[in-house]
Amino acid sequence: MNANSKPALRPYLPEDSEIVAAIFVAAIEQLTADDYSEAQQEAWASAVDDDETFGAKLASQLTLIATLGGAPVGFASLQGADHIDMLYVHPDFVGQGVAATLIDALEKLAGARGVPALTVDASDNAADFFARRGYAATRRNTVTINGEWLANTSMKKTFADVAAPGADQ
Questions:
Q1: Is residue 72 in a domain?
Q2: How many degrees, rounded to 5, is the angle at CA 31 between CA 138 and CA 47?
Q3: Which of 26, 93, 144, 162 has the most CB within a 10 Å radius?
Q4: How far apart (Å, rounded) are the C-alpha atoms in residues 154 and 122?
Q5: Considering the entire predicted model, what is its pTM?
């Protein structure tokens, strides 16, 4: 793949469930070891154990798939109008603009809908990425998944000048 190639985006399709689950697990296993224990990673990754439920969750949200050379390499989802629920990039493609492309798209979609701000509960390894993009920490959280406690940070980005739908840009 060309180093200058920009990720393409497309909507999530039900047949993406398996590859998206693989990206989810690989990202957790390979990118979060500095911030979470092995037991915490296993609990977190267990969200894909029931692939029907995981696929249904992605299908119920606005989920975008990032591709390079036609192959899925990352995904992001918007829960409701204003909450980034998931952002995962396959470890082999980190640093190639995949996450930025996905979040840019979600921010543009939210802005076009007149949403004044986006929120995210960022994992410890993703908090710096969101902070660089203008998201401010609002509180620290602890969540329990399969008996394991995991910390994350609620963050919010307010859009300075949200155009009303249909307004000239």
A1: yes
A2: 75
A3: 93
A4: 6
A5: 0.90
Q: Which tokens hold the place of 152?
A: 């994350």
Sequence length of the chain is: 169
Question: Which range marks the domain in which residue 79 is found?
Answer: 8-116
pLDDT 10s digit of each residue in the chain, 169 long? 445 588 999 999 999 999 999 999 999 999 999 999 999 999 999 999 988 999 999 999 999 999 999 999 999 999 999 999 999 999 999 999 999 999 999 999 999 999 999 999 999 999 999 999 999 999 999 999 989 999 999 999 998 754 545 444 4
Please report, for the domain that includes residue 53, its CATH number.
3.40.630.30
Task: Note whether residue 52 is domain-resident.
Answer: yes
- Rounded to whole angstroms, the Cα distance separating 119 from 156 reads 4
Give the residue from 118, 116, 117, 113 showing the smallest Cα distance to 167: 113
